[in-house]
Amino acid sequence: MARTSTERVNKAFVALIVIVATIGGFMFGYDSGVINGTQAGLDKAFNLSTLGTGLNVGAILLGCAAGAFIAGRLADRIGRRTVMKIAALLFIVSALAAGAASSSLMFILARIVGGLGVGAASVLAPVYISEVVPASVRGRLSSVQQIMIITGLTGAFVANYVLAHSAGGSLGTLWFDQPAWRWMFWLQVIPAAIYFATLLLIPESPRYLVMKGRDSEAETVLTKLFGNDHAHEMVRTIRDSLAVDHHRPRLSDLLDKATGKVRLIVWAGIGLAIFQQLVGINIVFYYGSVLWQSVGFSENDALKINILSGSLSILACLFTILTIDRFGRKPLLLIGSAGMAVTLGILMVCFSTATTVNGSLHLSDQVGITALIAANAYVVFFNLSWGPVMWVMLGEMFPNQIRGSALAVAGLAQWMTNFGISVSFPSMAAGLGLGLTYGFYALSALVSFFFVRKFIHETRGRELEDMVG
Hints:
Strands 1-2 form a two-stranded antiparallel ribbon. The longest helix has 29 residues, at 50-78. Helix 13 (264-278) runs parallel beside helix 19, helix 15 runs antiparallel to helix 16 and helix 16 packs antiparallel against helix 18 (386-396). It is mainly alpha-helical and 469 residues long. Strand 1 (355-357) and strand 2 (360-362) form a beta hairpin. Helices cover 76% and strands 1% of the residues. It contains 20 helices and two strands. It has a single domain (9-202, 244-463), classed as MFS general substrate transporter like domains (Growth Hormone, Chain: A, Up-down Bundle), CATH 1.20.1250.
């Protein structure tokens, strides 16, 4: 693709596109984090077992896996923006139904619907951004997605805290005599509606338009983005990159024609997606409140810790935005893997010393503070590396012809691993203990370091049309 300097870019239009697209990331974060403060309400309303709690918490992830897989393929057929609009509507339906659920089954179904939206938003926002912004700032702007995810998570934590505090606890009643935990879900309707409305303000991806033979529409979008002098050449370059294999994108494109095996670049993307979840980050986000209460913190303090973790995550993502296009993607991944391996190892040691007092786990004051510091340091390492960088890489590492299909498969792998880790945590913590459970996550972080060293190649500064594999 023709090289475009940032001086020729319509920066206001690019900013609008990035802001709107990443509202999907906010919804991704909010929908994932809202469950954190509602588990006491769910347990009481539905009389859940340990397995039942895991299924209610993890139900969204089944929808996420399906949504990521379907969205990647569907986006190649009806467009990136169209699928994001569908995701926004799914968020609204899920929020209303989850808050009103009268049974565990109804709640699970509502969360699966929301998961379809989360999965779609998770894969489409980074690829949409990567397809409309210049290569020189692509990593920086794609990283905004992770900040919005964490902002959504933190927003859910803050909303949960405020609602629970106002009601005297998550089981206390608020408006219309409904418990606070139900309002935690219903509040999500507001940002979901904003997401849908603002999607009407941005254009379809020019690369998708060229793929569909709508060159004149693509040129109009590119003219608004980069100016008339470069739009025509950019359309031609995109067209040339697709001309090598110009059939409709399909899953079989992921196979190497010479060997019939899955392309190495696809395996690399799947590996990135899986390792991002094997390090256990969503245990902090999904079970943080319950986890800290289990080792002696009050519900109020546990919710405050969630807010602290979310705030530190945002600061870490800001660091990534400032450095990813300077240092590159691979160095940040390596730093993150090493940092997470160390901090998870500390958590493993801390939790292995926990004692049982009156049927509940307990950490000594000193060990509790060490665990709290290590947990937040772990969150920082994740969010300056694997959190944003994995999504940046998946949005840009694949050639144009296979991007949608490769994202579908990688997204499916990411969310299925997320589901396995999240649903298994209550049982692992009860059966193996928190020490060994965190030991598994520490080992995964260590292995991810060597995976990145061997299989991941730098994409900083490269145009999407230059990606091969």
